[in-house]
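Readers of this paper often ask what the protein records in our data store actually look like. Such a record has a labelled line for the sequence and another for the backbone structure tokens. Nothing more is needed to write down the fold, since each code stands for a local backbone conformation. The remainder of this section carries one protein's record, kept here as part of the documentation.
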Amino acid sequence: MRNKENRRGHACPAVLRKKRIPIPNRGKWREAVPKVIILLLVVSPPCLPGQTNTSGAVEKIRKYSENIDNYVESNLDRKRLFGAKTSSGVSVQWKEFHSDEEREKALIGEYEYQAANTWLKEERVVFVNNTMWSDSGDWALYVYYYFDNNGRTIRITSDFRTFIGKVKVLGDLYFDAEGKILRKTEEYFDLHTDRQYSKKPEYQPDVTIPLILRVADLPFFLFLKRQSRVS
């Protein structure tokens, strides 16, 4: 079965399609981020000078990441494909693949695994989406990394979905030039209806977002130094 690409070039694996777990919508997810920022501006108390500077930095990063989103969506066929099986939560045997179909065939099985799509602009890595799936298909974690021209991570957004508790968790992290968090938000939704919870649901999934603060920290970084698209 041919892969269907979801938001930002992700390939939805056959195991998740079979179990009907919802995958990130190409339009709806993108709209969710500005709403979070607007909500924060409305309910926050009057800003102190330092807070104003933070808001300005966050807005600048948001606009930059929006430009990167547009670049990615206009260049879906220019992505580089990586993948690895995992053992006890640790990824092993990272490889580069020709196509989504080749990667899915090689990785889907009795293991949890990761699939990472990477975009370069002017020979610099600007965006990586890293997706992790359980072998059972009960959960999926989509993590999006935005990098500046110096190879530093300036934003990480995440989308965790699980049948256990039927929960969807959207996260958003902004970073300054030193890797310190400027802003952090987290929202919870019903997996099937998209109804937002006013507070954390009774079931709180234990989600660990891989914290990658530089391009050089990517587990497949050595592959990126090669010109070839295959290992």
About this structure: The longest helix spans residues 49-74. The chain has one domain: 4-224. The first strand starts at residue 4 and ends at 5.
